[in-house]
Amino acid sequence: MNSVRLIALSLSFAVLAGCGGSSSFSDLQAYMDEVRAKPKGSIEPLPAFQPYEAFTYSASALRSPFQPPVKIDLARQQKGSKDIHPDETRIKQFLEGFNIENFTMVGSLSNEGGMFALVQGAGGVHRVRVGDYLGRNHGRVVSINEATVDVLEIVPDGDGGWLERPRSLTLKERS
């Protein structure tokens, strides 16, 4: 048993002698000297960033490329009237900045003030009444009932005149 203790004790001294002997930290000392030698406050400047260039999408008034093209029969095409024209002097309402195809009727309300329709689109649900404008083609709400909102749009006919085009938004049932 003494011989086992003697061997263990000698191995312990050998390991300790290897740890504290002639080990050199010269590489660490050289790195620390290099870091200390750098001048204080020598931070590299930030890179120059390119300013943001805004992109304006100019084809928003054109037909959507995801909708089928409208076939026009030139012989049966309605001719516009010079008497019909939109009122360009009035102040545009918020819902005129969006396509009428994006709106769906989701409900109706009535009170002493009259009948109102709830249309969903343009980022939320909006209350409209007869006389309000809706859509980009000068669409004016002409009638509201429990199931539909009737809109009369004024669109150009392509020959310098204007046409009145009726549209209806029907009540969207829960899906």
From TrEMBL:
* Matching PROSITE patterns: PROKAR_LIPOPROTEIN
What's the protein called, per UniProt? Answer: Type 4a pilus biogenesis lipoprotein PilP
The keyword Ribosomal protein is assigned to this record: no
Q: Which UniProt keywords apply?
A: Lipoprotein, Signal
Q: Which Pfam families match?
A: PilP (PF04351)
Residues in coiled coil = none
Gene name for this UniProt entry? pilP
Q: Which domain of life is it from?
A: Bacteria
Which residues belong to the signal peptide in this entry?
Answer: 1-17
